[in-house]
Design goal:
283 residues; 8 helices; 7 strands
Length: 283
Amino acid sequence: MDNDHEGRHGAGLADQLWTSVVLEDRPCLMKASFSSRGYSLLLSDMEHFWSEEMNAEDVGKRLGELNRRLGAPVERVCEHLREAVGSLPRPGAAAAADREDGAAATAVAAAAAFSWTRREPAEPEQKAGGTVAVVALQSRMSGVPLRWEFRLSPAEHPAVWDELVAPALGMLRVLSRESAELRACIRRKDVEIADYRDSGARVSRKHLETKPFDDGAFTTEFYLKNLASCVDLSAEVVFDGDLRRLYGEVASARRTARKRKPSTTPGSTAPAGGRRRVPRSWG
């Protein structure tokens, strides 16, 4: 399943991070890869997943369909689409981070207007099942009006598995091991502090004194305080901050591990593992 998906979507999409965006006041997750040869895009409102892949020929045909009087190289159109998609507003904390980074609206961002609709698939699209999402863009490229439509069909299971589910499961394992090691470190610190106390040492200020760590009590209290907010899987918070960076590390490690697996072809050897490429943001 992994290899089949990678063959269709290529390494470009796998190299990207999920980004929280807002489409008509609704937070969504988007992952996109643009090149001079076309683009791949995944979109989710956390209830549905849609995707679209376009090669250079596809982009040229749609450009002519939607902009009959506009002639432009496919490479320039794809670059413009990348800039326009990168200008989509971010929800909540992500938008604040953009402002803190001093991200200024570009000319493309100022002129780009997105809208999206969901509809039942037409007959050629029905084999995939589910609804179709159309994200429409009205913008200006070099001062000339440009209209575009991302016509996304329901994403196939291998794409959702490779780009979201499998990395998320890997993230769970990483966070679980990290938690176990941190708890073990705290227990060792308790032993160290107890040794100091037995030697007559005392803290200089009373408020710095701590009780020995109770693993079970901590877990119970943590669940009571945080479980309700942690199960909020809205697109606004699911991949923010440190989790977004962790996703990149896990996704990169998965690709490296797959490259090191022996080929199923008799007599072949696995490629040597190189330096991991961490997924990056396209925004």
